[in-house]
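To whoever is covering the structure queue this week,

Two jobs came back overnight. Logging them here so there's a record in the thread.

Job A:
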Amino acid sequence: MPARKAQPQPKPAVTAQAKPQEDVIVVPPPVPAPPPEIRPAPSPAPPTGQPEPPKPEPQAEPAAAKPVPKREPRTVTIPAGTLITVRLRDTLSSARQSTDDSFVATLDAPLIVEGLEFAYTGGDRILNRVSFRAGPGQTVAILGPNGSGKTTLLRCLLGIHRSYRGTITLDGKDLRALSRSEVARRIAYVPQTTTLVFPFTVFDVVLMGRTPHLNPLGTPSRGDRELAWNALERVGLAHLAERPLHQVSGGERQLALIARALAQQSSYLLLDEPTANLDLGNQARVLEIVAGLARDGYGVVLTTHVPDHAFRVCTHVALLKDGYIQAFGPPEDVLTSDRLSALYSLPIYVATVAVGVSRVQVTKVCIPLLRREEEPWSSA
């Protein structure tokens, strides 16, 4: 009888080791529910005579995150006509920087004027030891009576007058060490008025702002034209792009000059009485644009005869009289009744008002008192 072959012994089943459970953070919904219990699958029984594999240690269930309580917004109602005194916050530390750092200076490199003195050849001194500074995100207003030297000061800041004493530092460099094209890349100028011999269109005038960035005898590129068009759209004059500049209103002409300065892509804008000869509506439009430029990181220096405008859009004010800076600082500190009365040789009262129904706005206004009025006047 043939020998019987030995049957092969079955191999022991290999039990899969259960992986340790990973830490899971459960973010509960508004009504938290307990997470499902996770258990490893049962392993098949090992054959007889084989040791039982070790069982994995049970993992602790993750703790459910506590729901964050929702904060309800608080609403404060102020009755209309309520008189409120508010100290405006200096906006230097919270100035917004432009997304393009190639032409916007940092707060560490402001426009600094120290001990500036200037006189025309053979004439009396117009500026005497003028010192102040302006940085990106700031709007500095220069107030003073006619003939106090405001326009001359702007011409010195532009590098037109270079025979001055003292120093003007721009982005850490002496202004007189820069060429005119280098100054134009850093400072843009908006005059009170402009005279054009040829009938340039509004777009042509704005496109002239790209001149400092062109090579000699160069022509504007497609990118230059796009920048000019974007500047027109920003001031709301795109619909007048093809109209001759001399056929638009005074307010629209002033906005076109501001658009030309924007197309120049400079760090600083100098505006010589930008609201002169404008009606109330166009004055508000210009002031809104100036405030928006400061929020975008531009440094703005403007001259004005209206102290109320300084209260609305300016972070600092310089009072200029007889070529001297009488005071410099935030408008709420500098523009007092005593200082304005001495500046203009006329009784001026500074009042705090609150206007609005659903949204109350608090501001200050300057009220000059006529000499024939006999009402009592006292300084604030």
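Job B:
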Amino acid sequence: MKGSQKNHGEYRLPADMQPWANEPLYLIIARWCLQQNRWINRNDVAAAFYLTERRTSLQLAYINQKKNRIACRTRIHVSDHQGHYHNEIWVDHILSSPIENYVRSSSSRRRSEPSKNSPQTRRVGSGMTGHGCLWETILRRVRVEQGDE
């Protein structure tokens, strides 16, 4: 069965993926990967869904980033005979609905507003306080020395 999405173009669904035809493509691919119960690379998905390797790579990257919906593992596999690196994914579980308030990592957490009693730690500028007119003073001295004022 052919499917299409506005932002993905056409693709073909494997026969066992028909019940999920109305879901987004990344979820259909994730379900297919889950059913395979093995490490999957972009060539496997491209062959099953008739996608280009580039589109398949983007879909797999998106699946890997959707931690609030898809539990998966990734690895880098090196081909023995050619020495090429291939990213592979293993889907462990698909959640029926996204986890609310999921935080991927400490670097992606939103910082809370600083309390009124704590000092501000992110000040922008040269770090010199009390010298707001220093630049104007320096410019004035240079102009006086040159006779411009």
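Note for Job B: The CA atoms of residues 69 and 94 lie 6 Å apart.

Please reply-all if you pick these up so we don't duplicate work.
Q.
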